[in-house]
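in:
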């Protein structure tokens, strides 16, 4: 099983640690593609500050994010599961997982990244600011860049298991599972039900996905089909509605009334 997560916009900034070694990251076949993004981002942020901020959508109140990118090649790194923060990652709580769950996370979880394409929790990366819809001078659209390179790496990480695709819309554009993987691809949509009416609410969506990942890792469930995943989640206490299989996989609706 491979659980594929979106990154977080907010990231922790390590104060100490070794500098980035692209060749040490998971999926080393992506090193040239990662180098291209890194060099384009650093060059942008070492140039005109205002241009870089506008290109990256950096708020005027956070000019330090441009400087952060300018220093990426020498900045301290930390494990990816300590870099990514926010609602989903807080609910997942990687640092407080049991020892066995941490071992499972090391091989069953990956994060889509605008800068690195995809990383494992144990990969050491610096903090950075780069959105999935960014367009970098000399490189072009980040999503288009990764569409041209990411597929073989993700499929190698997946192997013969089930893909649990929890990415947000921006990051699904980086790589879409081919039809050949549809029978073992599951996506999860979280719906909040209030007074009999259902809606998609960002906070519920992110928090519930984080809790789902944590529960799967702690329980040790390793479903191999979308149907088996739905069964595992029901056994863990969620209300799950299974959609019809399609060319893009099978959607699971998880219905919640509170986080």
């Amino acid at each position: 099983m491979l659980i594929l997560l979106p990154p977080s916009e907010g990231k922790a900034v390590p104060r100490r640690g070794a500098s980035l070694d692209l060749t040490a990251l998971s999926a080393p076949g992506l090193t040239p593609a990662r180098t291209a993004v890194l060099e384009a981002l650093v060059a942008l942020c070492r140039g005109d500050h205002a241009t870089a901020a506008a290109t990256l959508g950096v708020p005027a109140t956070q000019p330090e994010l441009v400087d952060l990118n300018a220093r990426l090649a020498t900045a301290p790194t930390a494990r990816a599961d300590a870099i990514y923060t926010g609602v989903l990652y807080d609910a997942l709580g990687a640092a407080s997982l049991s020892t066995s769950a941490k071992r499972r996370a090391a091989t069953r979880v990956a994060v889509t990244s605008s800068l690195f394409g995809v990383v494992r929790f144990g990969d050491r990366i610096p903090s950075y600011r780069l959105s999935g819809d960014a367009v970098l001078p000399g490189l072009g659209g980040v999503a288009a860049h990764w569409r041209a390179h990411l597929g073989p790496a993700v499929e190698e990480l997946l192997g013969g298991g089930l893909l649990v695709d929890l990415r947000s819309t921006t990051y699904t554009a980086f790589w879409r599972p081919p039809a050949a993987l549809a029978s073992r691809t599951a996506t999860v949509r979280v719906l909040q039900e209030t007074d009999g009416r259902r809606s998609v609410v960002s906070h519920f969506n992110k928090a519930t996905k984080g809790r789902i990942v944590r529960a799967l890792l702690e329980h040790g469930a390793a479903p191999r089909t979308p149907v088996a995943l739905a069964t595992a989640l029901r056994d863990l206490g969620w209300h799950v509605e299974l959609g019809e299989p399609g060319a893009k996989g099978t959607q699971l609706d998880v219905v919640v009334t509170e986080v």
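note: Residues 2-256 form one domain.
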